[in-house]
Design a protein that fits this description.
Length: 218
Amino acid sequence: LNAITDKKGDQTTGILLGADIELNPEEVKHDAFLLLSEEPEVTLDLNGHKLTATANSKGQSKTPTSFIAVVNSELTIKDSSNGNGQIGDTVKTGYMAVWVYSDGSKQSSVTIENGRFFGEMVAVYLQGRKSVGIISGGEFKTYSKYGSTERYWTINIYNDDAMKKGNEGAYYSVTGGRFYEFDPSNPNTDDCKTYVAGGYHSEKVDDDWYVVKPGAAN
């Protein structure tokens, strides 16, 4: 991270990636590389760079379970450079890209504008009934199917926290993005029937699903 700038006027913090960052699992002693806890609104600009790991960390207790953890905070992720900024690896590492958690005291959210997000089982995960995922663009992929379901659960919600039948709970609002072998309008999970926002739908092209507005080209 080469720049952290407080914008006191609107109480936001901007983090600009200045180079690729490759984590060494043996040296990371926290549950996530970047942990936002009880912070104001924060924007992370990948700036065309990658946040990856050097080795498979699965099963090692002192390595991150996610690259980014958002706890009772609100994070926006974008890539102002070329859209190829990346969180996660193109190989199995045991990590998820982003984990969002709320203990119920305040809303916790991630807003993803663009970039590339990789996870082993899940790329983006919501936990806690006041957790929200807003996705308007980006590419999302996981490398392992979930248990015996033989399905990719690329973005997912902890079942007990999901919004069901009009009750308040965690939810996604997806209005764009490319999802490898995963249809966010029919996620085939027990948490929600769809993650796609009203007025939008998903279209399949080869192995990918694209979320678009009717009449728009993907």
